[in-house]
Amino acid sequence: MKPANLGVLFLIELGALAAVAYWGFTLDVATPFAWLLGFAAPAVLITLWVLFGSPKATYKTRGAARVGFEVVWFGAGVAALALAGAWGWAVAFALVCLLSKTLAVVWGQ
Length: 109
Fold this sequence. Notes:
Layout: H1 2-26, H2 31-53, H3 63-83, H4 87-107
Helix pairs in contact: 1-2, 1-3, 1-4, 2-3, 3-4
């Protein structure tokens, strides 16, 4: 189960990126602006990941700062799905994130 959870952790990280892109592309705005947001929103999350979240991050986060970073990261995915009107997906994504991150802490991943 532990190796499977590592895979789930990776997939939910990608899921957060996909969720914010989906939010941007589905906004009821002019098409060029929707495309801009669809690409810019994941770019912002990627930048945050490079700076604070990755194993080789410029500014490594630990302890409470890491928890806060991950709440923002995965919360952005949940919020993006909810704002896009995909409430069922938002709830499902939140539950999978909560379960997988809890198991990661328990198992020291």
